[in-house]
Specification:
heterodimer, A: about 10% helix, about 30% strand, B: alpha/beta, 14 helices
Chain lengths: ~270, ~400
Amino acid sequence: MLILTLKNETTLPMNLGGLAPDRLAGKSVKEIERIPVWLGNRELPLADMFTIEGTRGENEITWAGDLHSAVGIGAGMKSGFVHVKGDAGSDVGLGMWGGEIEITGSALDNLGAEMRGGLIRVRGSVAINTGGALPGSRRGMTGGTILIDGNAGDFTGRRMRRGMIAVRGDSGNFLGHSMIAGTITSGNCGLYPGAEMSRGTICVTEGEVTKIAPTFNQACTAPTPVLPLIGIELQSLEFANDLWRASRRWQQFSGDMIVSGRGELFIASH
Amino acid sequence: MKTTIENATCAACGCVCEDITVHISGGRVAEVSNACPLCRAQLIGQVAGKPSPGDITKAAEILSNSKSPLIYGLAGSTVEAQRAAISLAEAIGGTLDLAMPGFHRAALQALQTVGVSTCTLGEVRQRADLIVFWGVDPTNTHPSFWERFVRPKSRSLAGSRTIVSVDGTRPQLPVDEYLEVAPEDSLSALSVLRAAIASVPISPSIPLSDELERLAGQLLNAHYSVFLFGPRTGGIAEIESLFCLVRALNNRSRCSAIGLGATICENSLTWQTGFPCCVNFAQGYPSYDPLRFYANRLLERGEVDSVLVVQSEGIDELSDLARAQITRLPTVYVGFPGSRLSFQPVVHIVAARPGVHCGGTVFRMDGVPIGLRSLFKSPLPTTEAVLNAIQQGVISSCI
């Protein structure tokens, strides 16, 4: 295992996008120390910014230190394990294909944006556009799982095509905006969950939604066989939830009717 | 000595009126006629100006020593100044972000995602038979808009025109119909309209559903409808929905949308880098991220170590925290005479105001380029000359 510890705290943006575990695997520590990374507009050897412990690059990296200005941790990774001790910055797991990332603190924007596979766990909260699409892009995440213990910001799961996002806390406005498919669960959420969604499933487990778009039709309030299956799947990933309770009643909406109306919005009924 | 300049151009707002008459007496603008209050406030009292020798070398030193410099502002700037700013941002490996209102930023992102059908203000004036002001009232921001484009004295195409306002408060303008929709309900209202146009049944218990159904009927029956949107229209989701509505209406008739803002400052950046704002050159090539490279966020998170502010207009867009950060950083300011600043720059360079002290080209809010003329023979350097000189200083310091 490699342990990379930030030497000097900085607020300037550090681009760590090229340091995925699968790309470091097999490299010696000397080689890894010479890998160039960007601090603002300066290109520096990795060893100038981080102390590197470990014998040889393996498929597991631990990042330590205050990394809230680090950009692109685990971006594009295909396999391996990345552990972030503390907070991480933007673009964590951006476009990742596989492997696992665990963040013990919080993360900023674009967490898991356009990811294709793999698993991201965040013990804290995340900012805007988690699992979403980058500007101008038609699709957000197309696979994989994002598990968030804290809260999520606006536009979580924007344009997501496949995969699952589970938020134990609350989400901001426009949860699952323009969603194409996939599954999102969240505690409470803000304005207009599922606006413009064409398919997919959104589940508000604590039952409080600020406002729903008028183009969602309410079908019924009843238990549903789908959500317990999602709950069991989340439990298998060690994400505690009570979706598995088959007796829970849900307000069930279909929408967004102005797009295709095949999306599902479940809101817990008290 | 008195001079009168006919057909002067005013760049005080996004209308860029070209029919202003300026009376100069005793070396200052004494009176302007055919002008709105914004134009009068900007032009009356203007003088040729005195050059203040700002320290170009110091400015170049601050920016070239910086690891993460930010160039911010350029609201109402000319194409020439924008090009110089882009070139400087590339030379110093910095981030370039433009000062623009939030709805304009949202519209740029919505444009990238869903696209939009738009038109010139000439078409609004001559052809539109239904104009909908959505979340915007141009009375104070574009005082001449109503008489120039909505109810002009002359209009080549005959026929009636209906003006509708959809907003949280009743506009001061004499519109034909008004629908009270709070900004947070904007997306609901747009969804109801889109459903009505697509003949999708929705619950009749929705507030204003009858009025919105009637507006949908008017939109479907119009030959040429135009949506004018602004600060209370909403964010990305609402503006995307508005653009989708415009697209749906174009299946039946002609429909366009225009943001009622200031002069457009993102065109040069778009044609030179492919991106309209929030562009970073740190790694030697332009990269774009409207979240990461948004000036407000960069400043709030302390991710910049020096700032070049070009023209203070538009800086109010920044949050209090971001503006407080500017006061703590080494800052270079290039702006017009008489700028009121909330921060103390290390280097302050006074540059000529386009349309007053120098010429140049600006883009009207509909994207039409319009040339500006100078009113005086001014000794002040242009913004592009100052930025080019700073760039030369940066290059010299690297050799």
